[in-house]
Amino acid sequence: MSSRVLLLDIEGTVCPIAFVKEVLFPFFSGKVPSLVSSGEPAVEELLTQFPQDKQQCLQEYILELVDRDIKDPVLKQLQGHVWAQGYEQGEIKAPVYRDAIELIRRGGEVYIYSSGSVKAQKLLFGHVADPDSDRRLDLQPFIRGYFDINTSGKKTEAESYRRILKDMGREARDVLFISDNELELDAASEAGLNTLLAVRPGNAPISSNKGYEIVKDYSAL
Ligand SMILES: CSCCC(=O)C(=O)COP(=O)(O)O
Ligand SMILES: [Mg+2]
C-alpha cells in the first residue's frame, strides 16, 4: 500500500470532527457580524454571490448555513478568509492526529480533498499543533495538491473524483481515498478509486452494511 497515491479527507480523517465543529465553526460564526459589515472588497464580492432573497438578512443566513453544516462554496471561501486571521494570530492550531502527521511526512504522494476551501486547507496544514511541543508544524511541503468543492465538485459525486484523477494525471487504481464518510467512499468507489473508511474517536457511528475496509491507525499504511 505504501506506493499508492493518497487522497485524504480532513474532518474525521486527519483531525477530529470536534476541531471543525467546536473550534473552527464557532470562530467563524463569532466573526460573522463584523464580516458582513466590513466593506472589504474581496468579502463584498463573495457576499453578493449569496441568493438575492437573502441579501437583506445575510448575517442570519450565513449563521444558518454554518449551523446546518451546509457545504456551500461561497460560505467555504468566507470561512477560509476568516480562519486566516485566527491561524496567523496564533489563536488556532490544527490538532492533526500524530499518525496522520507521520503518514503525510513519510514522503509519499499525498493529496487532500475537503469541503473546506483550498485556502482553508493550506492554512490548516501550515498551522498544525506539534503533538510534542507548543510549536506549530508546517506540513504543506509534504502535500502535492489540494482539491475542494470549487475545484472539483461535491464529495458525494463520482464525477468529482474523475476530475481529480484527471488533474493528478493518475489512474483510479493507483489512488487510495481515505474518508470517514461512507457517501464519499461510495462516490470514490464508483469512480474506481481504492477506499478505506477512517474510524477515529469522536466520529459518528458507521452504518454496518456497506462493508468498507476500516482503518483505525495510519501507521500500517
Ligand atoms: C479545511 S478545514 C475545514 C473543513 C470544513 O470546512 C468542512 O466542512 C469539513 O469538510 P470535510 O470535507 O473535510 O469533511
Ligand atoms: Mg470527513
From TrEMBL:
Its main location: cytoplasm. GO terms for cellular component: cytoplasm; nucleus. Substrate binds at S114, S115, K155. InterPro entries: Enolase-ppase_E1 (IPR023943), ENOPH1_eukaryotes (IPR027511), HAD-like_sf (IPR036412), HAD-SF_hydro_IA (IPR006439), HAD_sf (IPR023214). Pathway: Amino-acid biosynthesis; L-methionine biosynthesis via salvage pathway; L-methionine from S-methyl-5-thio-alpha-D-ribose 1-phosphate: step 4/6; Amino-acid biosynthesis; L-methionine biosynthesis via salvage pathway; L-methionine from S-methyl-5-thio-alpha-D-ribose 1-phosphate: step 3/6. One of its GO terms (biological process) is L-methionine salvage from methylthioadenosine. It catalyses: 5-methylsulfanyl-2,3-dioxopentyl phosphate + H2O = 1,2-dihydroxy-5-(methylsulfanyl)pent-1-en-3-one + phosphate. Belongs to the HAD-like hydrolase superfamily. MasA/MtnC family. This is Enolase-phosphatase E1. It comes from Torulaspora globosa. The gene is UTR4.
